[in-house]
Amino acid sequence: MILRDRAPAASIVLWGRRRAVLSSARAIFPRTLAASTPLAHLDERVAGIVAVALGTGFWGLWTWLAGAEHATFHHFNRDLAIHVNVLWHTLHGHPFATTLLTRNDNLLAEHVWPILLPLSAVYGLIPSVVLQIALQQAALALGGLPVYLLARRRLGAWPALLVLTGYYLMPAVTDVAWDDLHPGPFTTLPLGLGAYWILTGQPGRGALLAALATPLLD
C-alpha cells in the first residue's frame, strides 16, 4: 500500500517539474526566435542583393557581347535581320511586312508575334538594334526571378543563388542571349511567374498570367 501511495505522488511531482520546464522553454524560445529573426531577414536581404547583382551582370555582359558582335558585323543570325526589318516596316505603316522571308512578304503568314507592335514603337523612338538586344537580355535576366523565388521557398536564400546561377549559365539561355534576337524571351517572366504561382498553391492566378502571356507568341 505504501508503494502504491508513493507512485501517484511521484507522478504528480514529475508532472509538475515537466510543466515547469515547458513553461520555462516557452518563455525562453520566443525571445531566441525573435532575436534570430532580424538575422534571418538580413540573410535574405543580402541574398536578394546578390540575386539582383547576378541578373544585372547577366544583362550587362550579354548586352555588351551581342551588341559588340552586331557593331563589328559578326552577327549572322537571320532572325535578328527579320526582327528589325519587321519593326521598320510596321513603324512605316505596313504592319508585319518584311522583305527577308523567302516565300512570303508578311510575317503573319509564318508567325504571329503581337509583341512586335510595342517593340516597333520603341524602335520608332530610338532606332537602335542594340537597344532591341538590350531589351531581350533584360527579359532573359528577369526570367530568373521566378526561378530564384521558387528555389528560395524550397531550399533557402543562399542555395537559391546557386540555382539562379545555373539558370543564367544554362545553354538554352546563353545561346539565345549570345546569337539571337527573338520575341520568345519576352514571355519568360510572365510564364515563369505563372508557373511559380501554380507550384505555390495559387493555380488560378498562375493560369491567368500564363494565359495572358501566350498570345504574345504563336
Features:
9 helices; mainly alpha; globular; about 220 residues
Helices and strands in order, then pairings?
Layout: H1 2-71, H2 78-91, H3 116-125, H4 129-142, H5 144-155, H6 157-169, H7 171-179, H8 188-199, H9 203-213
Helix pairs in contact: 1-4, 1-6, 1-7, 2-3, 5-6, 5-8, 8-9
What does this entry look like structurally?
The chain is an all-alpha fold and 218 residues long. It has one domain (39-216). The chain has nine helices and no strands. The chain is globular.
Low-confidence runs: 1-7, 10-15, 24-36
Principal-axis shape: globular
* Cα Rg: 28 Å
What pattern of helices and strands is seen along the backbone?
Answer: HHHHHHHHH
Structural class: mainly alpha
Number of helical segments?
Answer: 9
Describe the main β-sheet briefly.
Answer: none
Number of DSSP strands?
A: 0
Helix coverage percent: over 70%
Average pLDDT, all residues:
83
How many individual domains? 1
Amount of beta strand: under 5%
Distance between the termini: 88 Å
